[in-house]
C-alpha cells in the first residue's frame, strides 16, 4: 500500500500544529499494534492485555499484509474488528471537543463521534503499513487507581523502532467501569505528545473558523475521500 493518509494535510487549516500532527500520525502505529481480536478474552490486567494482544495483532497483520495492501475494504474490516473494540471512541471524541461538546446538539455529538472514529481508522490504516518487522512494544510498568467506581490505568511502554533509533515512550491511558467491564483506551501519549490535547487544538481552530457543523462536514468529506477512494 503506497498511499499515505491525506487527512492531516487536508486539515492544515485546522490549526498551526502541523509538525505535531505529523509526528502523532507517524507514531500512532503503536496504538494499532496493541489491538487484537482476542481483546474481549484477554486478561483483566491492562498491562497483560497490551502485552498479549501485541503479538496477536502483529501476527494477523503480517500474514495478510500483501492482500490487505490492495484491498481497502478488507483492511477496514480488519481494523474495525481489532482496533475499534480497544478504544473508547465516544469518550475520546467528548474529550477532544471539550467545551464544544456541552453546547453541541445530540446530532452533532453523534456525527462528530462517527467522523472522529473514521479519522482514527484512516490514520491507522496508513500508519500500520509503516511496520516492517523491526518494531515492537516493550511494557515497562503500570499504575491503576480507583475513582468513583471506575478504574483508571496508565500503562507505560516503549516503542522500539529498530535501526539504531531511540525507543519512543508511549503511555496508554485506559478506563474500566465496574469490576467486570472491559479496559478501553481513552487517550495516549506518544513521545510526550498527548493525543487528546493535540486533536483538541486541531479542532478548536477549525470550529472557530467553520463552526462545529462546518468542521464535521469538512472532516466527513476528508474521510470519504480517503476511505472510499
Polypeptide structure, described:
The protein is an alpha+beta fold and 229 residues long. It has a single domain, classed as Tgt2/MlaC (Nuclear Transport Factor 2, Chain: A), CATH 3.10.450.710. The protein has helices spanning 7-10, 18-27, 29-33, 46-69, 72-82, 89-97, 99-103, 106-127, 195-228; strands at 136-147, 150-160, 168-177, 184-190, 193-194. The chain has a five-stranded antiparallel beta sheet with strand order 1-2-3-4-5. Mean pLDDT is 77; it is low at 1-20 and 34-42.
CATH architectural name? Roll
Percentage of residues in DSSP E strands: 15-25%
* Gross morphology: globular
Query: Which class of secondary structure composition applies to the elements?
Result: alpha+beta
- CATH homologous superfamily placement: Tgt2/MlaC
Share in helix: 40-55%
Q: Helical element count?
A: 9
How widely separated are the two ends?
Answer: 13 Å
Count of all domains: 1
Strand order of the largest sheet: 1-2-3-4-5
The helix/strand series, from N terminus to C terminus, equals: HHHHHHHHEEEEEH
Radius of gyration over all CA atoms, rounded = 17 Å
Amino acid at each position: 500500500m503506497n498511499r499515505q493518509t491525506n487527512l492531516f494535510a487536508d486539515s492544515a487549516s485546522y490549526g498551526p500544529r502541523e509538525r505535531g500532527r505529523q509526528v502523532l500520525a507517524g507514531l500512532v502505529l503503536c496504538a494499532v499494534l496493541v489491538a487484537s481480536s482476542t481483546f474481549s478474552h484477554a486478561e483483566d490486567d491492562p498491562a497483560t492485555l497490551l502485552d498479549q494482544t501485541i503479538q496477536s495483532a502483529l501476527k494477523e497483520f503480517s500474514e495478510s499484509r500483501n492482500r490487505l495492501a490492495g484491498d481497502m475494504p478488507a483492511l477496514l474490516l480488519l481494523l474495525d474488528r481489532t482496533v475499534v473494540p480497544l478504544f473508547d471512541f465516544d469518550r475520546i471524541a467528548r474529550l477532544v471537543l471539550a467545551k464544544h461538546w456541552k453546547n453541541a446538539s445530540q446530532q452533532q455529538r453523534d456525527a462528530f463521534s462517527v467522523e472522529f472514529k473514521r479519522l482514527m481508522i484512516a490514520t491507522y490504516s496508513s500508519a500500520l503499513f509503516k511496520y516492517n518487522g523491526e518494531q515492537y512494544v516493550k511494557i515497562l510498568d503500570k499504575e491503576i487507581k480507583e475513582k468513583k467506581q471506575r478504574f483508571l490505568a496508565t500503562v507505560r511502554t516503549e516503542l522500539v523502532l529498530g535501526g539504531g533509533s531511540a525507543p519512543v515512550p508511549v503511555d496508554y491511558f485506559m478506563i474500566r467501569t465496574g469490576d467486570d467491564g472491559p479496559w478501553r483506551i481513552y487517550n495516549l501519549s506518544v513521545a510526550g505528545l498527548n493525543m487528546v490535547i493535540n486533536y483538541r487544538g486541531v479542532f478548536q481552530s477549525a470550529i472557530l473558523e467553520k463552526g462545529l457543523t462546518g468542521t464535521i462536514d469538512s472532516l466527513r468529506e476528508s474521510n470519504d475521500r480517503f476511505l472510499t477512494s
